Amino acid sequence: MGTEGDKGYLDMGFARLDTMRAARTGFPEVVFCEGKADAHIGEIFCRLYEKNGEVLGTRATPGQAEIVKRALEEGYVADSGVVDMFSYDAVSRIIKIEKNDKERKGLVAICSGGTADIPVAEEAAATAEFFGAKVARFYDVGVSGLHRLMSVIDEIRNANCIVAVAGMEGALPSVLGGLVENPVIAVPTSIGYGVAEGGRTALNAMLTSCANGVVVVNIDNGYGAGYVATQINRLAVRVF
Amino acid sequence: MGTEGDKGYLDMGFARLDTMRAARTGFPEVVFCEGKADAHIGEIFCRLYEKNGEVLGTRATPGQAEIVKRALEEGYVADSGVVDMFSYDAVSRIIKIEKNDKERKGLVAICSGGTADIPVAEEAAATAEFFGAKVARFYDVGVSGLHRLMSVIDEIRNANCIVAVAGMEGALPSVLGGLVENPVIAVPTSIGYGVAEGGRTALNAMLTSCANGVVVVNIDNGYGAGYVATQINRLAVRVF
Amino acid sequence: MGTEGDKGYLDMGFARLDTMRAARTGFPEVVFCEGKADAHIGEIFCRLYEKNGEVLGTRATPGQAEIVKRALEEGYVADSGVVDMFSYDAVSRIIKIEKNDKERKGLVAICSGGTADIPVAEEAAATAEFFGAKVARFYDVGVSGLHRLMSVIDEIRNANCIVAVAGMEGALPSVLGGLVENPVIAVPTSIGYGVAEGGRTALNAMLTSCANGVVVVNIDNGYGAGYVATQINRLAVRVF
Amino acid sequence: MGTEGDKGYLDMGFARLDTMRAARTGFPEVVFCEGKADAHIGEIFCRLYEKNGEVLGTRATPGQAEIVKRALEEGYVADSGVVDMFSYDAVSRIIKIEKNDKERKGLVAICSGGTADIPVAEEAAATAEFFGAKVARFYDVGVSGLHRLMSVIDEIRNANCIVAVAGMEGALPSVLGGLVENPVIAVPTSIGYGVAEGGRTALNAMLTSCANGVVVVNIDNGYGAGYVATQINRLAVRVF
Amino acid sequence: MGTEGDKGYLDMGFARLDTMRAARTGFPEVVFCEGKADAHIGEIFCRLYEKNGEVLGTRATPGQAEIVKRALEEGYVADSGVVDMFSYDAVSRIIKIEKNDKERKGLVAICSGGTADIPVAEEAAATAEFFGAKVARFYDVGVSGLHRLMSVIDEIRNANCIVAVAGMEGALPSVLGGLVENPVIAVPTSIGYGVAEGGRTALNAMLTSCANGVVVVNIDNGYGAGYVATQINRLAVRVF
Amino acid sequence: MGTEGDKGYLDMGFARLDTMRAARTGFPEVVFCEGKADAHIGEIFCRLYEKNGEVLGTRATPGQAEIVKRALEEGYVADSGVVDMFSYDAVSRIIKIEKNDKERKGLVAICSGGTADIPVAEEAAATAEFFGAKVARFYDVGVSGLHRLMSVIDEIRNANCIVAVAGMEGALPSVLGGLVENPVIAVPTSIGYGVAEGGRTALNAMLTSCANGVVVVNIDNGYGAGYVATQINRLAVRVF
Amino acid sequence: MGTEGDKGYLDMGFARLDTMRAARTGFPEVVFCEGKADAHIGEIFCRLYEKNGEVLGTRATPGQAEIVKRALEEGYVADSGVVDMFSYDAVSRIIKIEKNDKERKGLVAICSGGTADIPVAEEAAATAEFFGAKVARFYDVGVSGLHRLMSVIDEIRNANCIVAVAGMEGALPSVLGGLVENPVIAVPTSIGYGVAEGGRTALNAMLTSCANGVVVVNIDNGYGAGYVATQINRLAVRVF
Amino acid sequence: MGTEGDKGYLDMGFARLDTMRAARTGFPEVVFCEGKADAHIGEIFCRLYEKNGEVLGTRATPGQAEIVKRALEEGYVADSGVVDMFSYDAVSRIIKIEKNDKERKGLVAICSGGTADIPVAEEAAATAEFFGAKVARFYDVGVSGLHRLMSVIDEIRNANCIVAVAGMEGALPSVLGGLVENPVIAVPTSIGYGVAEGGRTALNAMLTSCANGVVVVNIDNGYGAGYVATQINRLAVRVF
């Protein structure tokens, strides 16, 4: 077990948990579960829960979710009600330890080009919801059947920020960018084969979009898009 | 000067002109002017004119056009009327020695995403016209302002083949492919900067299009697209 | 279950089936099975069968084929004869729900460089046959033994469109393009090792072909080539 | 000269100016000058000025600026005061036709890693200012001398959006992302040699940033960053 | 079994062990275990132990460690005490046959950006310790929470050489390079996804570092960094 | 079963065996086993044996070797002695059906940089031996311990052709090229990690060798190197 | 001026001329002129002439040729007849100081795919001729018009070694490899645009050739191909 | 003009000169001249001279050197003797304002593979000398003529650090690493053509070196290598 003192982090030996992140950035530290050792992951969630009262974990396997749940059940944290706050979603691979009565504000629209992009889109949606944004989902609205997108475009235009998730040629953000007023956060996915290049073609297409108002995150980075969408949404709903 | 005999080509020492190509493929040999030596280019056009009665040359500089014109004027060919058949277009960089009374049939639509793609689009258009197709042009109809494309889509749908020329993210063929019945030949252009990668991003995006009915040619290869569009158009208008 | 109304698509919650595609493009929506969830794939085939009377599915695993067959058998569709229309081919990985008395017209030639390219070639052939084209197959006619290609070239020249499938250095379309009159659709395959780069070398070689009349689709995209070949063949056999 | 009617664009023959963009996206069309023909650029600025009362042009050469200025002076527009509204900045390569009494709101911070990144940073700054944002500049605050960044970090934290411009290893956005509350728009520049790869290394580094709250635009795309920064800033200062 | 004679190597048939390496370079030959055949690995360790009295092996699987241990136990070497000198560490994947009373001198600092980089960092640390350097470890001090690095920077500055291990955007060496006096050996790791490109982005970022005093080794090459760190440390502690 | 007639190939339905290859190139067709279907591979070896009296197969798995052996045992060929001619080597993954009393001529030297390169080196050696060359092996003579190479260089210089197999930085052919008189065929291997890039770095290093007399084959293509080495050796030993 | 002594090289301060290369490799050192300083190039040719009696220089500009010629004329070498031995060819960019009565033996065939490949082909031809081989040239025999190649294939088959020079898709060596008995040295050229990638596509296509007997040199490396062709030809004509 | 105060940098408006770098890292800030504006470069050298008493500038054009010299001559600094301290070397492109009586200690060896690598090698040498190291130069000792390297290897082994500069296949550091005791800093150069890829092949080859003790810097980064060589040399000569 580590100590914290006034250094602004909790030294766990194998990690230094950033306990002053919420103070600096407005959001607490999130756990990127991919590759975390089984021996460490339970304790990390427990310590962050004690510090922040809520925890978000991304890219968790079902096995990791089971380990975290058991750590909470076995009383590693002082608060017995924490188990009820635990949830795991296999599609988005997200673990949440979350308060039940959270109010959500503003609006973030999450669009996907195809059905195969849904896991990444759901990671973005769950992240934005965890951090307090209302989310509207518009899936399978890719550009090869434009009428599908057009039938929902007025709803999309209501959002403070639009997350556009697409693989293959990644054209959805370009079409959306020409139709909406607020920022489009483009998320390339690794969907596709051959010169889809594991998402690199969609990524480059999004970066060279002929439309204005498009910014991009890494391939399959639904979390990153949901995070920034929440930052933007928060600015829009803040009362001055 | 070379000899031909029954070998099916004219051996000019520095080149072997394929004189049986029209018999094999239905179209005579075309001159790719880029990099051809000044000392050779005039003679190549003259020999091909003598053989085929018409000549098409692509990627010609104004200087090369001047050399070819002078060769024709100086009587290197037996037919004094040939000079009137000569033309050079600086936008498409195409030289034509072409009969005046050519009938054009069917319909090929040439679309471009932006104005910077026009030189490549014009190369495609001029090629298709040279080989006997009627051509309709629809320029600057890129996906960031969809209403521009939608206002002409019904005209485009009338064509036997659609050539879609676009740079940057190259999304135009994907949108077109979902709206038309006949083949879309996608031509990526080298327009764009950064990760546009000189047209590679548009190329890959077109190859991974989520729409059906899209085939692709090399970057900036307007000639190749115009050629295949003519092959397709010719099949459509053939009487059985 | 979703509703359709006049939106032109069937909203299934996890997907929006494009029910007006045949009206727009002349071909109904096809199921790309790779990565589709087991929970969804049966229903997708049933709904598309109800709408279109036939369904084509590509890149299906044997397991997926089993699921679709069972869905049909268990009466998810109102038509008890549908099971007899079902077939699955393990080489091309194609599922068909197809009418038995379909007439096929025109001619598409499918050539492969080697035997390892046959699965992709068969995907192209099955697609073209499903959409109504007659198909002639010419396999293992690669350029390292030219006499094999030459012994069948006259038959190939009869086709309205030639699909040329090849991996490694992908030279087959270049040789074919110089010998035939109609369009050659080149399909690079992922066959080869080292700098074959999973098909990228063949793809680039085909895009830079010195022959005219060659267009290209994504690596291993037999379906896409078969689709466009059918579009071209359909134009050729149309009566005016 | 083109006509507009109710199509939502002005058809100039060589271009279709998107006259309904401000209605759709809140910002009028901007002129990307790179590669525009001398014969067209003057007229484009004049027509857009007539439509929108202001015009922004990016990536303009001094020669292009001269042509635009002359077009305005020669009375191609009905408003004689327009010449006084013209300005050209050689560092950012931006042409503005801008009203003098524009109010600017909120705050966007523009940071650069080195002095060589200033042209791109200035493009972002000028864009944000044109669209109505207050801008604070923090140049040469790269990570190899952290004390330079730390001496201004409190001012940076006041901004609604931070634009971080850097070449070479592109580490500035990662450090900033860990220190601020609002979104960081990372702009990779083509500064550097060898494996800087014309900005690709900085781009990829920014996309894989270990910090949250970082989104990315194309290499050297100061305009795109300034545009989105303004969208975010506008949401923050909007009164509800 | 091979013979050595005066050739400076031991010819084992399948390998030529470099027995004069310590004389040339000051360090004996080390065993890179990855891919070594089970039939050979035990004998290689035994022969090197006989020659050098100590052996270091890197990238060993637990199974290989077991084989080596058994070979030592079964008396393939004349010295029965050798088994007590054997150790295997599963995190760094390092096998050591090492004398117990080794004195360590000078100081090498090993820093890691995140917790996922620890295996590579430990490989560097174990290598430096084996070759006689004192090592201080500073893990999880990445740039997204600078206060963690700043709280230990004075300790790091005491080292004769700093090894900086980081994945993703690889910014740690740039920040360190600006803060310390002695050489920084940067080790990119394959941690990250998408355009992290298996460590290539971190590698290129480190090579284009804006800080001075940074040199780089191959992706995940903790051994190589530890080796050079020891060479530098040895120069620093040498008495003249 | 197919027929051959005078077409110069044996049409097996799934393949066209090139039966006139020996006449054209001096060597009979060889079987590249990787990816060959179990249902076909036995028959292919039997037919080629009947035609040529010997067969070489490369990249065969142990399972494929078993299938071929069984096909021979079960009498698919008329010659009962064929089973004794069968052999399989697990290191080089080569199947041979070979006459026992073959004379070998000339000399080919096969060198490898490390022990991990031996499988590729053995593929080259076995190929050259099958086609009638004497082979001398020099393994583990990489450039980091030059004395190992120098102790055998005089023997290497006796060969008519030198095959140099190396992974990682692939420097062996450069050093050899400067020391020998006859051609060096460089074979890059996929040995190495990180920026070894699966052999691409070694390949490019060999292609840009500062030494003369170096030619290159594809990554891990021991067969190709052995084939050309035999062609060269054959020219050297031919009596005029 | 440098000294040589028994070191086997001539130390010129700025360079160490390898004076024992002919003894080691059978060919004297050749001058790669690209990038050589004007101040050095004259002296280098003079010193090598003095040592070897002949000199070959590649990639020389006309200006460099002029400098070398003047150095010879101004008597920097003791032999006044040397000026008559000097020649420069602008197509191949080769400088020769060569004896007039050289006998040439054996036969090397140099083939090119197109006319744009001729400069590289001529570099190969001139190199082979300088080193003593007879050369036959077959230019513009690319695969898009196979009859051109077929009309000369019997002559090509007479050569001891075939050099195949081609750009774009680089298919010529594959077709040749299937038709000839002796080694094919493939030379990719930088001819082509877009995904020709400056010769990389041709290079990779040649390395992945489906034909046997093909080895490859770097892009545009006519010299390297001519060198190895001569090595092979020399082995073939050697009397035992 | 800027002010400095206690911020540790001099704010010049367009730049923040790092005035506490020497305190942090032991070396003062160096001027990377490439791309610096003419209007700024003179003042930067003057201010740094005033602060540090010496200045080093890299990658300076002759024109920039002229500007700096004139700025010094025109008295922008208070010290009239400064002009005598100025020097510019056109090969290494280095500007020095340097004290005349500087003592140099220890030893750094600078080796180059070819003569074309000398400008980069000289940049390394001049940097090391400026910072106080003795330097020994060994140029044109590439691996295609090993005897040249072997004749000087004993001198090289005396150095505390070896800088190995090479382009093309970059094999020199691998050979050196196997022969010396102290660290080898490998510098890839952009010398070579085709797949030399502007130095990327040499870079990757150096990073994957089979020899120990090799670290790498960016392509053509002689300065960076000279800097670290000095750091290492300084540690070696330090008295304890």
Summary, kept brief:
Chain A is of the alpha/beta class and 240 residues long.
Task: Tell me what you see in this structure.
- Chain A has 240 residues and is an alpha/beta fold.
- Chain A has 2 domains: 9-97, no CATH class; 105-239, 3-Layer(aba) Sandwich (Rossmann fold).
- The first copy, chain A, is built from 10 helices and 11 strands.
- The first copy, chain A, has a 5-stranded parallel β-sheet with strand order 8-7-9-10-11. Chain A has a 4-stranded mixed β-sheet with strand order 3-4-6-5, with helices on both faces. In chain A, strands 1-2 form a two-stranded antiparallel sheet.
- In chain A, helix 2 crosses helix 3 (62-73).
- The longest helix of chain A is centred in the C-terminal third of the chain and has 16 residues, at 222-237.
- Chain A starts with 8 loop residues before the first strand and ends with a helix.
- The model of chain A has no long low-confidence stretch (mean pLDDT 92).
- At the B-C interface, helix 1, strand 11 and helix 10 of B face helix 1, strand 11 and helix 10 of C.
